[in-house]
Write a structure and sequence with these properties.
This protein has helices at about 1-10, 10-40, 45-65, 115-130, 140-155, 160-170, 175-200, 210-235, 240-250, 255-265, 275-305, 315-335. It is mainly alpha-helical.
C-alpha cells in the first residue's frame, strides 16, 4: 500500500530513487536496531521492549497525521497523472453502486468514508482475486511478476545463510552475526550509491535510449548477474577472504527489486491499475517467502544428512534461479 501511494505521487523518473533510499534506510535501521537490542537484551530487557513499543506508537502517530494530500498538487488547474489511470475501479476499495465514489477525481462531497472492516474485507477479496490471476495480466507485467517471484525464491536462501556460514567457516553464531551486520551495511551503502550512479553515469548515456525504464532494466540485469556470481562463490566456501568477497558481490545486487518494480510501474499496459500491480507484487513476495524459507531449510537439511553432497549445493541452486531470472529480464529488454 505504501509503495502504491509513493507511485501515485512521484514522477516515474524519481520512483526508483525513492525506493532505493527507503530500502537503504531500512537496512541502516535494522543494523542500528540489532546493535541496540544486543546491548540492552542481557540487562535491560524491559527498556528494550518499551523502546520497541514506543517506536511502533510513533510510527502510528506519524502515519495517522500525514495529510491525505501529501505530495499532491490539488490546485484547481488540471494536472497530469504520473502513471496512466485504469478505467477499472480501485481493487483496494469497496465497490459502490455510485461509480463516482471510486474515482480519484470525484468531488469531496460525493465521497463516502469506508469503515476499517470494509477496507480489510475488500482488500482481502482483491488479494484473493489477484492470487487466482497472478500471471494472467498482459506483458510486460506478467513477466515482471514472474521474475520477482523467481528472485524472491532465490533470495530466500538467506534463511540458511547464518547456519551455512557457521558450518563452512567454523564460526560461532555470535561471530556470524558480525558478518551479517557487515552484509546489511554493504546493502545500505549500495542502495544509497545507486541514485548517485544513476544521476552521474547512467542518465546522460540513456537520455535518448529509453530513459528511466532502460536504466531500471540495466540495473536489474546487472544486479541479477551479481547475485548469481556471489551465490556461486559462496557455494565454494573457499576460505574467509573469498567468502567475504562473494557475500559483498551478492549484496551489491540489492537494488534489483526496487528497479524492477519501478520498471513494472512505468510499463503498465493501458487499462491496468497501479493498485492492482502492487497487489500482485505483494502476493509474489508473500508466495516467495512462504515457499522459499521451508524449501531452502529442507535443502540444507538434506545436504547435511547426505554426508556426500557439497555443503554449498543449495547456494548453487539459488544461483541457477538467479540465472533464470536474468533470462526473464532479457525478454523484457527485447519487448
Amino acid at each position: 500500500m505504501t509503495c502504491k501511494c509513493i507511485a501515485d505521487i512521484l514522477a516515474p523518473e524519481n520512483l526508483t530513487i525513492a525506493f532505493n533510499y527507503i530500502s537503504g534506510f531500512y537496512y541502516l535501521a535494522s543494523v542500528l536496531g540489532s546493535t541496540i537490542g544486543s546491548l540492552l537484551l542481557s540487562n535491560h530487557v524491559y527498556i528494550l521492549n518499551g523502546l520497541s513499543i514506543s517506536c511502533y506508537l510513533l510510527t502510528i502517530c506519524v502515519a495517522t497525521y500525514v495529510s491525505p494530500h501529501c505530495g499532491r498538487d490539488d490546485s484547481g488547474k488540471e494536472t497530469t497523472q504520473p502513471f496512466p489511470e485504469s478505467s477499472e475501479e480501485d481493487p483496494l476499495l469497496p465497490k459502490s453502486t455510485d461509480r463516482s465514489l471510486n474515482l480519484s477525481h470525484s468531488s469531496p462531497q460525493n465521497t463516502q468514508p469506508y469503515s476499517l472492516a470494509q477496507l480489510l474485507f475488500h482488500s482481502w477479496r482483491a488479494s484473493y482475486a489477484s492470487l487466482l490471476t497472478l500471471f494472467s495480466s498482459q506483458d510486460p507485467t506478467s513477466t515482471v511478476i514472474l521474475v520477482l517471484l523467481i528472485n524472491g525464491l532465490a533470495a530466500r536462501i538467506e534463511t540458511v545463510l547464518s547456519q551455512y556460514t557457521s558450518l563452512a567457516l567454523g564460526w560461532p553464531l555470535a561471530t556470524v552475526d558480525r558478518l551479517m551486520a557487515l552484509k546489511a551495511l554493504v546493502t545500505a551503502a549500495s542502495l544509497f550509491a545507486l541514485p548517485l550512479v544513476r544521476k552521474i553515469c547512467l542518465e546522460p548515456v540513456y537520455a535518448g535510449r529509453g530513459g528511466s525504464t532502460a536504466i531500471d532494466l540495466l540495473i536489474t540485469q546487472v544486479s541479477l548477474i551479481a547475485n548469481t556470481i556471489g551465490m556461486v562463490d559462496l557455494g565454494f566456501s573457499a576460505g574467509l577472504p573469498l567468502f567475504v568477497l562473494g557475500l559483498c558481490v551478492y549484496t551489491s545486487g540489492s537494488g534489483l527489486a526496487d528497479s524492477l518494480i519501478s520498471f513494472g510501474t512505468c510499463s503498465l499496459a493501458e487499462g491496468e491499475s497501479v493498485a492492482e500491480f502492487y497487489v500482485r507484487v505483494g502476493l509474489a513476495n508473500a508466495l516467495a517467502a512462504l515457499i522459499g524459507g521451508p524449501l531452502w531449510s529442507a535443502a540444507m537439511s538434506g545436504v547435511i544428512r547426505s554426508g556426500w553432497m557439497p555443503l554449498g549445493t543449495p547456494f548453487w541452486l539459488s544461483a541457477g534461479l538467479f540465472g533464470t531470472a536474468v533470462l526473464g529480464v532479457a525478454t523484457l529488454k527485447r519487448a
